[in-house]
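Minutes, methods subgroup
Present: GH (chair), OT, SY

1. OT presented the first of two proteins processed in the latest run. Sequence and C-alpha cells recorded below as shown on screen.
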Amino acid sequence: HDTVGHWRQVDSPFNGQTVWKVAVDPQDAQRIFVGTGAPSRAVLWRTLDGGQTWDRAPVDIPEFCEGVSRPRLLAFAYDPTDRNQLWFGLEEGGLFHSRDGGDTWTRVDDRLLWDYNSDVHNILVLPNHGNKVIVVVCVNAVYRSLDEGLTWTGIVARETFGLYYVRAMNAPLGTQSSLYLSISDGTPGTTSKVLVSHDAAVSWEVLPLPQQPNSCVWAIGINPADPRQVLAGTKYGHLFTSENGGEGWQKQWREFSEIADVLWTPAVAQIKAGHQSIVKKN
C-alpha cells in the first residue's frame, strides 16, 4: 500500500507454488484471481475478501502439455461491461470462459481457427462503444469475437506482421477500443515489434522504437492515470518508454538481466535512483 516500499506475505493454499498471474478486479480490489503453473500444477485460485480466504476454481486444467511440459496460467481478463463474465488462458492448455463470476467454467479454444490455439498468451475484453470485443492472443495468431466467444475471426501473425510469435498485450484503463501488442521472431527471440490498434484489433500500426530490441518484448505496461505513458520491456532486459501513447519512444539507459513484467504506477515512489547509481530519498 506504499508504492512497493513494504511487502507482507499473504498466506494461501498455493504457498510454495509458482505463480504466473495475479489479476485484481479493477472494480473490486477484494476480488483477485491467481494462476499457478510450471513447474507447479496449473490451478486457478479465487479470493473475494482480499486474500484472507481462497477457493480453488472448479475447472479441469490439463496436468501436462506438449510444448512446455506443464501448463502455465498466463492470461486472465475481467469483462468491464459485466462483472460475471471472466476469461483465462493457459500456455498451453486452453481458453476458458465463465458467465457466473468464476463459479463454473467452460473450455472454448476448440472454437478457434488454427493450430496451437490452446497456447494462450493474453486476453482482453474491450467495450468498443457498445459492440464488445474479446481479443485473444495465441502463440501465432490474434483472435477477435463479437459474440462472447461463440465464433471467432483472426489473423496469422507471420502472414500479417512478418514475425510469428505473439506475446504481450495490454490496454489503457477505461479504453473503449485501444490496445498494444508485441510480436517477435520467437522466444526469447532476437528482435521484436510493438503495435497499436485503435479499432479493437481490426487494424494495426507498427510503432517506431528507437532501436531494434534485443529479444521479444515480453511485457507492456500503461500508467492507469495517464494512458499516454507506456512501457515495453524485452525478455533480455531492454526497457522502452513512451510519453505520448507510443508515437515516440526512448530506450532507458538501465538494462536488466531479464524482464518478466512491467508496471507504471501513478503513485510517486519514496526513493529515486540517479543515473550514477546514487540513491536519493525525498
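2. SY then presented the second protein from the same run.
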Amino acid sequence: MKDRRRIVDEIEALIEPKDSWIKAAFYSDPKVTQIMEKLYQRWEEKGREGYPVDYATDDELRELYRAAKHYSKMPVWRAKALVEKRMEERG
C-alpha cells in the first residue's frame, strides 16, 4: 500500500480532534478493538519499536480508515448511545 503514513495521518485527523464519545465509539468498535489488540501484540513482540500502527497490514489499515470515516461522521448523541450499549453488552 502506498502512502501508509498519509493514511495513518488521515485516521488520526478524523478521530483525534473529535468529541470523546466519537473516539470511544471508534475504539470500542469490535473490529477496531480486534485490530488494535493485534497491533499492540506485534508491537510488544518487536520490543516496542516505533508505534503499534506501524505493524498494521494494508488490510488492517484500510479497515481502520473505513471505521474512522464512519465514526467521524456520526452525531455525538448516536456515538454516546452506541458506546453505552456496548458497555452494557460487555457487562
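Chair's summary of item 2: DSSP finds five helices and no strands in the chain.
Next meeting: continue with the remaining queue.
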